[in-house]
Amino acid sequence: MDPQARAAAPGSATRRFLTGAGAVTAGSLLANIAAYLLHLPASRWLGPEGYGAFAALLSAQLLVAVPSLALQAVVAREHVRGVPHEALRSLGLRVALLVAVVAALAVMPVSVLLDTPVLATAAALAPGPVLCLLATEQGLLQGAERFRALGVVLALAGAGKVVPAVAVLAAGGGVGTALAAGAVGVAAAWVGAAWVGTARVGTGRRDRATTTRPARDPARGTAMASPGVAAVLAAGQVQLVMMALTSVDLLLARALLSPEDAGRYALGAVAAKAAFWLPQAVGTVLYPRMADPAGHRGAVRSAVGVLLGIGAVVVVAAAVAAPLVPAVVGEDYRPVTGVLWAFAGLGVTLSVLQAFLLATIATGRTAEAGVAWCGLVLTAAAVWVSPRELESVLGATLVVVVLTTVVAGWRALRTRPA
Hints:
By secondary structure, the protein is an all-alpha fold. It contains 17 helices and no strands.
């Protein structure tokens, strides 16, 4: 069997998928564990007052990270289409400069809003531009289907952000110094990612395919223009609505339910978040094929099939483990045991919806995300008019999210890459 036939064999494709998903999952898991572990020494060494400011600034840091998520998706898509690395790195630089301006303008307002020192706030927002440069390298690796290298970069980014900050805290540093050290660590991770991205060893199958052809418009056969900042902003609104959909029910539950039920809902939401984040590598690995007109529908179907298979296991596991909840977290949370499986089901549904939204970015038709924005509004409205009970809020959210996912899926499978 010649090399091309061997690469096209079903067993080889399955093996590549499992290897890629495993590498990305491992890298993401290490990064997430590092992020969570940062809070343990920070809460101990900074004390309640210092840790409150530290945690608030880390939350603000997430806002300047949103453009980097969109940038990675756009860079991966355009790499699949054959846009040169130089053009994509230029795009990353332009987005980074834009984020730097926005972050600089936001320092004073965020400092006032969170009641945090100006220098500490600036240190918290400083990684925003560097995260865009890092996301550019990650997008190039993702588009090239170099998932082992991507997993290494994800782990490197997580360690770069956390290890220097913990070292500074251990040495007696304060909030601003620790955040500044984290910013330096992110910059070091970007340098490492750039080195991995330019290394010739381990170049992926997609790299070899795209570096030999110019970027062409698949519909017209003409040369494609390099993507602009507008493409990143369009993808950013897709990422933003997805983040909002994963949080709107929890925020409204806190406002509408009794303090006790709001706390119980928050515990159930942990199961939803776990079910949502657990299979993230599936979309990451199949996204480059979603951006390929020839494999778009097959990749979307494969992603949904894998996500539903993993989701079925997660829902059953949640139902089986539910009776342990009172023993682990206390009798006050016993009412959650009967609906823990539904929380897990909500997370699974959101993961499928995210796959469909990734498909809209892959096709370059991000206006299709209007379905998700409508779903967000309907979710908020349904929760608002539902009875002020935990089960009712969960049920209203689940019904609207399922309907939104069905409509988004129908549209995604009808749309081909632009």
